[in-house]
Design brief:
The structure holds two protein chains of two kinds. Helices cover about 80% and strands about 0% of the residues of chain A. Chain A is built from 14 helices and no strands. Chain A has helices spanning about 1-25, 25-35, 40-55, 60, 95-130, 130-145, 150-165, 170-180, 185-215, 215-225, 230-265, 275-285, 285-290, 295-320. In chain A, α2 packs across α14 and α5 runs antiparallel to α11. In chain B, α5 (about 90-125) runs antiparallel to α6, α5 packs across α8 (about 180-205) and α11 (about 240-260) packs across α12 (about 265-275). Chain B starts with a helix and ends in a 12-residue tail after the last helix. Chain B has helices spanning about 5-30, 35-40, 50-55, 65-75, 90-125, 130-145, 150-160, 180-205, 210-215, 220-235, 240-260, 265-275, 275-305. Chain B is about 75% helix and about 0% strand. The chains are: A mainly alpha, B mainly alpha.
Chain lengths: ~325, ~325
């Protein structure tokens, strides 16, 4: 779909017009405008925005606490006081879903910042620009992680090392201080996730930097005596930013999905902190399905919607940011 | 294809190093993690003296590096050790029948993925510009987005509880109706992925000069599509077989655990719960070996399909 739109744009606007537009607004602003022209991408953005808003401001948004029980109203279908029904312990499903989205929101953001930005961009730039031994070491370590089946390894790490990390006192102190329930769990999950999610991005960035390093403007900058940091910051980073955004948006759905899988296995976020994985596990047993299918359908629909939105957005961003690629 | 053989040899020489690293990580994780396989195996009323004795027999009271050394020595002799939960049975006895189950299930899913995904993708590409194309792409993307741990319960709800077509769980081999749900659950995301990719490659082939030539010389449209378009758009697909395998392994965890299929997915689940060290380690090693071999095969397939790809200058990375 997008091929056509970018082609037609080039036809109608002509090369010069595109250039002028770029100079006046900056490439990212232009990309954003193009993105907002796609209706599906806007719909996906709205879904993701609402999800993250509810998640990050769960204490304010959620009508009840995730532990509040009303034992007179267990396993109820949707009603006015409980729009999404209640679970087997009489807890409000709407509130639980909102609190569960907090878990997913926090873990994805933390993984994105550590594994996605710091590790993958940092190591990719370093490997590509420094070359030699540093490059070999980074890429070989990446090979090891890439060669491993990620999910089984993540399950093992979370099942074994996780319990030890959860016992660290200072993590509990942060949990109390910041009032983020389940903080140690978040640290375990995003720590393990970022170990595995940096490799793909780092490889792409490295290969780009390898090519950019040989360009004339980098040689010119170096000849003028620019420091390594200046070259990386001013010349390389802006040129890989599009690819960074595309590879990050492509992995967001996978990160969210993996967090949910880990919690489903019982090695992710621990109860009573709600998570979609645990809710899907409880709702997915055949007895629960028989009596209360809404316990599966409510979290299932939201999870499917979220990952779908991430993938739609990722596709749209790929079209907008890499118009040359077919 | 000069330089291909040294490349493969280099990769194969590198494989044991990766496996050694994996075995060390997995070994450390199991030994330093919480939980004790013997306590799990002995249950609630264990006798401390017996616990000590078995611990000594199994060598679990030795220092960490000595234990790892013994493990490697046994591994070099092809011994994977004994299972802790299935007493007196060798690990290989436990895991290889399970792998056989998972492999057959995965193969069926893989066949369905390509048999359904490729025609769907070609169909979507040929309908470009009509409503069917964006519609089918959205449906594909949606199917790819729904995790297996949601599709399986949904299928249970529809096929078992509402329609009463299928039994809820179990495994009876390839020609048993109980294979329908796991095979469907495993193949749906793959079908969607292959269909999207086939659509993309078909669209780029449709723009090629030789397709125009074929049409210009008056060939029937069906011949053009089947001989010239589909054949050329299939080539890049070989490279994603590896990715499909990875997603299959991932999906198998959930499908097998939810549907009670005695494959490696369920075995992993059970042995992580039961802290069965030797089975966890063996599974990690077997899965990683499979991944490494699959990656090498795919890289070689690249060069055979596309002679422009060369690996001589891979010293950089």
């Amino acid at each position: 779909m997008s091929d056509e739109s970018s082609v037609s744009e080039a036809v109608f606007a002509g090369e010069g017009a595109v250039d002028v537009e770029r100079r006046s607004r900056g490439p990212l602003a232009v990309a954003l405008r193009r993105l907002l022209r796609k209706k599906i991408a806007v719909a996906a953005l709205i879904f993701i925005g609402v999800f993250y808003f509810c998640g990050l401001f769960a204490p304010v948004v959620a009508p009840r606490s995730y532990t509040d029980q009303n034992l007179d109203a267990v396993q109820q279908g949707p009603s006015l006081s409980h729009p999404l029904g209640t679970d087997t312990l009489g807890r409000d499903m709407l509130s639980r879903v909102i609190w569960a989205s907090r878990t997913t929101a926090m873990v994805t953001i933390a993984t994105l910042l550590t594994g996605g930005l710091v590790l993958s961009v940092g190591l990719g730039l370093l490997a590509g620009y420094a070359g030699g031994k540093i490059d070999t070491v980074i890429m070989r370590v990446g090979d090891v992680f890439f060669g491993l089946p990620a999910l089984p390894m993540l399950i093992m790490i979370n099942a074994t090392v996780g319990a030890r990390v959860r016992g660290w006192g200072w993590l509990g102190a942060i949990e109390k201080g910041l009032r983020i329930d389940g903080f140690p769990d978040y640290v375990v999950i995003f720590g393990a996730l970022s170990l595995f999610f940096w490799v793909g991005g780092a490889r792409i960035i490295r290969s780009q930097v390898l090519a950019l390093r040989e360009t004339e403007y980098v040689t010119a900058a170096r000849a003028m005596g620019a420091s390594t940091w200046r070259i990386i910051w001013q010349h390389l980073l802006p040129n890989v930013s599009n690819i960074v955004i595309v590879s990050l948006s492509a992995s967001l759905g996978a990160i969210a999905g993996t967090e949910i899988m880990l919690s489903w296995f019982g090695v992710g976020v621990q109860p009573p902190t709600p998570s979609f994985g645990a809710m899907l596990y409880e709702g997915g047993s055949i007895r629960t399905l028989q009596a209360n299918p809404h316990l599966l359908l409510v979290p299932g629909a939201i999870v499917a919607g979220l990952i779908f939105s991430f993938n739609l957005l990722g596709d749209a961003l790929t079209d907008v940011l890499t118009p040359h690629a077919r | 294809m000069q330089g291909l053989l040294p490349y493969v040899v280099r990769r194969l020489l590198w494989a044991p190093v990766i496996l050694l690293a994996v075995s060390f990580i997995a070994f450390a994780i199991t030994r330093f993690g919480p939980g004790d396989p013997l306590r799990v195996a002995m249950g609630q009323y264990s006798d401390p003296a017996a616990l000590q004795r078995v611990r000594h027999e199994e060598g679990l009271d030795k220092p960490f590096f000595e234990q790892y050394g013994i493990y490697l020595k046994n591994l070099a002799h092809g011994k994977l050790g004994e299972s802790f939960t299935y007493r007196n049975r060798d690990v290989s006895e436990v895991i290889f029948p399970r792998i056989w189950v998972s492999a057959r299930l995965g193969l069926v899913a893989l066949l369905i993925i390509f048999a359904v995904g490729v025609p769907l993708g070609v169909f979507a590409a040929l309908r470009q510009g009509t409503w069917a194309d964006p519609f089918s792409i959205s449906v594909f993307l949606f199917l790819q987005s729904v995790p297996v741990l949601i599709t399986v319960p949904l299928m249970l709800l529809v096929f078992v509880l509402k329609l009463h077509w299928l039994p809820a769980a179990g495994w009876g081999g390839l020609f048993d109706k109980r294979i329908v749900m796991p095979a469907l659950a495993l193949s749906l995301p793959g079908i969607a992925g292959i269909a999207r990719l086939t659509r993309a490659t078909t669209l780029s082939v449709l723009r090629e000069d030789y397709v125009r030539t074929a049409r210009a010389k008056g060939l029937h449209e069906f011949t053009v599509i089947s001989r010239h378009v589909v054949r050329n758009s299939l080539l890049p697909l070989v490279t994603v077989v590896g990715i499909s395998l990875a997603t299959l392994v991932e999906g198998a965890f959930f499908a097998e655990t939810l549907l009670g299929i005695p494959g490696i997915g369920k075995l992993t689940f059970d042995s992580v719960q039961g802290r069965d060290y030797n089975i966890i380690l063996a599974l990690a090693l077997v899965l990683c070996s499979a991944f490494i071999i699959a990656n090498i095969v795919i890289d070689v397939a690249y060069t055979i399909i596309d002679p422009r790809v060369r690996y001589e200058r891979r010293k950089l990375g």
